[in-house]
Task: inverse folding
């Protein structure tokens, strides 16, 4: 176990080796070169299995202790190559050589579970952190189950994933599976490596028999962008997305917006940063994200009135089926609109809100008494009914009580949508009447 009780887990998918061209025992080997074309280049010991080179690299170069080394392969994977993880003075011992040869011969046609178990037990006498799992090529869901089994719910993990070998569909699915694990286990970081045997010509300092090693942080970055983009699209919570595109922590700004404060200065600062980033970002996908968020904050900045911001966020949440938020915000937007129309100052104050509610109830009463000409915002009986139903449903939803109006609004989503759509249409009419008054 590493410091701070964080467990470093190396996950490697082991594939079928390429038999030696001279037909001698074993598989074609290569020297994996870490940090190619840099002054930190490290050449690992020759091997046919990249996972061994990766294990060596972390031990010798990054000085990171691998607490658990999970190997997943099929019945024809090159399990015999794992002898290289043993100390050099043990690799050529008589017992290891005999067992390794047995595994090598058997894996050509399909290694038996019993043989693989004995081989694992033999190796773990020297390297206790090894764990073997044999799966079928299309048994992809089981692979993710294996990782869940190996990672405790109470654990704290750094994941290193080797996606070099095996049938190509296996490491691809495992990559997605590991990202899913981030929601099921506590995973602090994910690092993905690829032993790029087919990319030697792209590196100037490599020679025949060597293979460059590529770390792929872009995968983790893209996943984080996907997660934060989905979070924003579904909830409006923009803090993780802004962090991913280099804005730092904007939690305070978001909190002020959620609490219906008016952080205009902070929003203007964010807009200015977006303007600078539109030219600075490297990739087209980053630029599109910046443009989307830039438009969002510009629209937010144009809504000078509190009731406008409340109304927009109500529609935002309604479109994402966050019905309670949409309901509360729409009702409050109506109250604040009444405060604005009747020049009730300091609409952030409780007493001012109550005065605005009184004006709303007065207009409803005027409708009942056939005095709609005295009203500024509510002109028809059906509009008064909509506001009353909205208030009843809002109170019942917030307090968990029965509504004074139609119970179906709280139990039937289609009925609820009819009410919300009616209230939204009414609010639009009210905005038009305000501008005409």
Result:
């Amino acid at each position: 176990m590493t410091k701070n009780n964080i467990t470093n887990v190396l996950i490697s998918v082991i594939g079928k080796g390429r038999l030696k061209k001279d037909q001698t025992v074993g598989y074609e080997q290569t020297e994996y070169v870490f940090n190619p074309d840099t002054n930190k280049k490290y050449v690992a010991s020759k091997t046919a299995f990249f996972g061994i080179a990766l294990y060596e690299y972390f031990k010798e170069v990054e000085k990171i202790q691998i607490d658990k080394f999970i190997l997943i392969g099929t019945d024809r994977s090159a399990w015999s190559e794992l002898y290289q993880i043993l100390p050099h003075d043990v690799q050529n011992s008589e017992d290891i050589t005999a067992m390794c040869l047995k595994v090598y011969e058997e894996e050509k046609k399909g290694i038996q579970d019993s043989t693989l178990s004995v081989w694992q037990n033999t190796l773990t006498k020297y390297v206790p952190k090894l764990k073997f799992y044999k799966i079928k090529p299309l048994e992809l869901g089981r692979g993710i189950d294996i990782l869940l089994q190996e990672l405790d719910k109470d654990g704290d993990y750094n994941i290193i994933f080797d996606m070099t070998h095996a049938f190509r569909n296996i490491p691809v699915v495992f990559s997605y599976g590991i990202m899913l694990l981030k929601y099921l286990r506590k995973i602090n970081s994910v690092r993905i490596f690829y032993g790029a045997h087919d990319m030697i010509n792209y590196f100037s300092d490599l020679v025949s028999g060597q293979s460059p090693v590529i770390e792929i942080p872009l995968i983790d970055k893209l996943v984080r962008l996907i997660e934060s983009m989905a979070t924003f699209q579904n909830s409006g919570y923009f803090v993780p997305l802004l962090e991913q595109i280099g804005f730092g922590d904007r939690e305070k700004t978001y909190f002020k917006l959620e609490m219906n404060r008016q952080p205009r200065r902070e929003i203007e600062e964010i807009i200015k940063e977006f303007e600078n980033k539109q030219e600075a970002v490297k990739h087209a996908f980053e630029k599109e994200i910046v443009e989307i968020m830039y438009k969002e904050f510009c629209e937010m900045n144009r809504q000078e009135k509190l009731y406008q911001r409340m109304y927009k966020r109500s529609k935002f949440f309604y479109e994402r089926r966050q019905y309670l938020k949409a309901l509360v915000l729409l009702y409050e937007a109506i109250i604040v609109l009444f405060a604005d129309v009747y020049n009730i100052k300091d609409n952030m104050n409780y007493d001012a809100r109550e005065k605005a509610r009184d004006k709303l109830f007065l207009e409803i009463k005027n409708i009942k008494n056939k005095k709609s000409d005295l009203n500024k915002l509510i002109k028809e009986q059906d509009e008064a009914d909509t506001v009353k139903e909205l208030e009843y449903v809002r109170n019942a939803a917030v307090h968990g009580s029965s509504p004074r109006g139609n119970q179906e609004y709280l139990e039937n989503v289609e009925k609820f949508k009819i009410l919300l759509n009616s209230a939204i249409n009414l609010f639009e009419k009210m905005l038009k009447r305000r501008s005409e008054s």
